Amino acid sequence: MQPAKRRPPRVGDSPAVRRTLIGFVLIVGALLILAPLLVIFAQAASLGLDGFLKTIGEPDTRHAIMLTVVTALIAVPVNTVFGIAAAWAITKFDFWGRRFLLVVIEIPFSISPIVAGVAYLFVYGLQGLFGPLLDAWDIKILFALPGIVLASMFVTAPFVVRELVPLMQAQGRDLEEAATSLGASGWRTFFSVTLPNIRWALLYGVVLCNARVMGEFGAVSVVSGNIRGQTNTLPLHIELLYHDYQTAGAFAAASILTVLALVTIVAKVLLERQGAGRARRPALAAPTGKSA
Q1: d(CA 200, CA 167)
Q2: CA–CA separation, 208 vs 203, rounded Å?
Q3: According to the model, what pLDDT value does residue 74 have?
Q4: What is the DSSP letter of 31?
């Protein structure tokens, strides 16, 4: 009998290496992520419940929260529809420029949000491309809600697409082609065949998109004008409070965005588990024996 071959050593087999890596990750994560979060909650809690509610209830803070919510309610649904349409076109149809379309959609990932905000100034500003026309029709884009929504949509445009395209490419076109051959219309095929298969990835992309919209700072700071009580979203209002030496108010407002981030993480984990569970069930239910 030949002696069993020894498995070559792998990185991480040594307990010292394993403990060093785990300790390094824990220390860096605690210093860069956990410590700032704890400081935010500690400073917000130091106000007490009455002080916290009083700070959040100030008119400018309430307006910033409301403006942030309204922006998300507009930008997220539009980007969701756009993401579904773009993913459908890229994965279900063959046309010239398909790869180029995917590259264009991913541009916001490689461009600084501040650069995007400045670009909107040159497009919709008074001296911009459409500025004179908009001014003649008395349509205000910049330093108002439309500009904030447009900037938020720009930076979050790729989120839904990036979640759907890999999944829809892996699923292929067989189910949609079968439904079409049986006489189903395009809308019926989408709602009965495509949507059930992509719903978890879609929800995941929507959650990420919503979190980014509510936390966006760079592009919105350029196009909003930072007008107190009018065009300040919650991230901009936090910076304004901090520069005005209203530290307590800044931390109280920041705790709201922090809670949103934690809720996003929890939703992400739950959606990933649901999606993984749905993917495993068909495999577990598949028969393992041979049929006669």
Answers
A1: 10
A2: 9
A3: 94
A4: I
Measure the CA–CA gap between 108 and 177, rounded to whole angstroms.
Answer: 33
Task: Determine contact, residues 210/72, Cβ cutoff 8 Å.
Answer: yes
Rounded Cα distance, 71 and 210, in Å: 10
- Alpha-carbon distance of 159 to 204, in angstroms, equals 9
Instruction: Output 113-116 pairs: Cβ under 8 A, ≥24 positions apart.
Output: 113/151, 113/155, 113/216, 113/217, 113/218, 113/219, 113/220, 114/218, 114/219, 114/221, 114/222, 116/151, 116/154, 116/155, 116/218, 116/219
User: pLDDT for 27-65, tens place per residue?
Assistant: 998 888 888 888 888 888 887 888 888 888 888 889 999
Using H for helix, E for strand and C for coil, what is the string for 249-278? Answer: HHHHHHHHHHHHHHHHHHHHHHHHHHHHHH
For 97, the token pair is 């420029």
Kindly list the structural domains of the chain, giving each domain's residue range(s) and its CATH number in brackets, ordered by start.
49-277 (1.10.3720.10)
Token pair, residue 36, equals 């700032």
pLDDT of residue 8: 58
Q: Cα 184–200–100 angle (5° rounding)?
A: 75
> What ranges in 106-194 are assigned the alpha helix state H?
107-110, 113-124, 131-136, 145-156, 158-171, 174-181, 186-189
3-state SS class at 128: coil
CA dihedral sign, ordered 220, 162, 37, 34: negative
Q: pTM of the entire structure?
A: 0.81
What token pair was written down for 81?
A: 């529809």
8 Å CB contact between 213 and 73: no
Q: For residues 68-86, give the mean pLDDT.
A: 93
81-84 LR contacts (CB < 8 Å, sep 24+): 82/157, 82/160, 82/161, 83/157, 83/159, 83/160, 83/161, 83/163, 83/164, 83/202, 83/205, 83/209, 84/160, 84/164, 84/202
